[in-house]
Write a structure and sequence with these properties.
Number of domains: 3
Order of helices and strands: HHHEEHEHHEEEHHEHEHEHEEH
Low-confidence stretches: none
Pfam families: HTH_1, LysR_substrate
Keywords: DNA-binding, Transcription, Transcription regulation
Largest sheet: 9 strands, mixed
GO molecular function: DNA-binding transcription factor activity; sequence-specific DNA binding
Shape: elongated
Family: Belongs to the LysR transcriptional regulatory family.
InterPro entries: LysR-type_TF_proteobact-type (IPR058163), LysR_HTH_N (IPR000847), LysR_subst-bd (IPR005119), WH-like_DNA-bd_sf (IPR036388), WH_DNA-bd_sf (IPR036390)
Number of helices: 12
Length: about 300
Amino acid sequence: MPPGFPALPSLNALRMFEVVARHLNFRLAAEELGLTQAAVAQQIRGLEASLGVRLFERLPRGLGLTDAGRGYSVSIRSALAMIDEATRLLRPQSEQLTISVTPSFASRWLMPRLGDFAEHYPQIDLRLLATDRLSHFHTEGVDIAVRYGQPPFGGGLNTELLMEQRVVAVASPALLAQKGTPQTFEALQGFVALHDAHHYWPLFVAALFPGHPSPSARNLRFNQTSLAIEAAIGGQGIALASHAFVKEDIAAGRLAQVFTQELRLDKAFYLVWPRKARQSPLLQVVKEWLKEQAADS
């Protein structure tokens, strides 16, 4: 029988070593791995103890590789890349990628486009994780996320702009035909303001009717933008939403843009993915497809 590999450390410890060696920072490595700094530091201490070799120099600011650690990191990175490649070759017919988005982004923007993705990339098994909370790339197996806000979104992450944010007011054409398009602040008070969790109404009204307070007489509040949009389609009032989320509804006549003014914010939609030494070709395909779709939004 073959002797096996009696001197081989745990693969989990070696993977952590590769990440720490790449970042030279326990905090950034912990964020990429979805673990605590203490857990990562403990694994590295355990690896050094089992090898009987110091791999890192503890510096006042971060870490430095020892000569032994530098050579070991090159070899381990190469070995892990070979394991990754061998694993991928086991399933060449169907490759999976997980994308994390908010429920509203999923329902109002991404899902209507998934048919196009499936048609052009049938070999890619795209898994959609729709959640309002911040997904952990490592622990939940997320490959790429769409996040709304301003970068940076955390250490160890790459960020690329996907779409600027353009907020518009929309309502059912039938509601506007019945009540008339509001041209004044007083006329706007006659409509129900449909709010989502972003609470754009005060900013929008301040830009539209300077000097006036936010409409306060009649409000409906939802925790999801998609719900506010559905309420607007149902004739319940006026909603504020990203133009990308309502573009198709406006084109189909389900919604009408109430004012020509748009609210442009310093926040936007960004693609976010872990910073790794070697990126999957699959990730590049999905990123480019998302950017192509956003260019048409």
